[in-house]
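Exercise 3.2. Students should predict the tertiary structure of the chain below and write it as structure tokens, then compare their answer with the key that follows.

Predict this chain's 3D structure.
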Amino acid sequence: MAGLDPEDWSDIRAMGHQMLDALFDRMEHVREGPVWQHMPQDARNALRTGFPEQGQSLEELHGRFTDFVVPYGNGNTHPGFMGWVHGAGTPIGMLAEMLAGGMNANCGGRSHAANEVEREVIRWALSMVGMPEDGSGCLVTGSSMANFISIITASRAQDISLRSKGTGGRKMVGYAATTAHGCLPRAFDLAGFGSNALRRVPVLADHRMDLVALKRMIREDREAGYTPFMVAGTAGTVDCGSIDDLTGIEAIVRENGLWFHVDAAFGALACLSSRFQKALSGIEKADSLAFDFHKWAQVPYDAGCVLVRDRKAHAAAFAQSLDYLTREPRGLASGAPWFCDFGPDLSRGFRALKVWMTLGHYGSQRMGEMVEACCDVAANLARRVQTTPDLVLLAPVTLNIVCFGIEDLSDQDVSELVQDLHESGVAAPSTTRINGRLAVRAAIVNHRTTTADTDRMLDAVIALAAARRA
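Answer key:
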């Protein structure tokens, strides 16, 4: 056999239809099973077959997938999943993944339709947050990479010689609130500045960056011989969903000649709701912005996005000229700038199709309504917490995240309770620390989650807490 295609396509065609039907059945009935269940050792062992010398039939492989992979998933498609910040996916996105796999496009560069789809998606994203549509951007694995690209772009905009000479001993620093995501100090580390080069600005009682402290820290760093180059605001903190005063940060940034970055990993989608546009005021002034389509936009993993206001500054930070990647005025090698000019990846999948089809099918109005529905469910949960004895709301509910404590239980008890809740299959919230106290954290990102699901979760928490006290 010279190639890998089947000699007779009828069998694989029939099997493909069977697999697709199974996917639709699972998605249609997802709420009927447990949110999550422990993967037993025998199931783990069943996947440890060693590198196969001889191939197996597609039927055998799909059977093992059905028996040993599907039942033990992450759970984020289930409406009872409320942990971390995970999107739930949609049938449209699932189909788009299949179509993209069939094309097998490399979107690192060159002139072809998949890249035009991505350019349109970037224009949509710029429009969504109010940034100029002549800006640039690209789709990446997630906000961790998007924030990293933004930091590299910001530093090179300060001094393009960093690309060839490094910092040359210059002590370059940036600023973000103590509530900012951990990927930001990690990005400073990976960029060669060191994680301590990201100054952590204290927050106020509402968990937003203290702008008085920010101004003081910038001044003190300059007096000490450091070179400030950027400030990162957050639109939707990962712990409790607070939104920094982006307009206030932008004013300080312009006064000091710095780069204004916004990490809006999930909060960017709130721009689609008129209810939250005022809270997000200033996001449109960002020099760069990171967010994920695979969170609140419900696009299948992975689909992060970085946007940059200044296309030239973005390309200057990453573009390179190589003999084997020459850009031509016509032919397949035309179409510059390529997407590899806006980030570190040369080999890139067709992520844009699932974004294009998801947003194209549901439209901005329906997506905005979905965002508001999630926030309404969170608000209802917060009201229940506030009216339930022995539960206490630990942070304001700005968007869709509810953090609450359980009275008379230690942090260890709360941790054990959440683990018990996971293993029950009823719901899967996560935990975080609010003012030093371990909180149960429910992030309502899943478009399938309703008040019935959060009520069921809270009822289980109350019962488990009572059992622990007893």
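Discussion points: The longest helix spans residues 352-386. The two ends are 68 Å apart (CA to CA).
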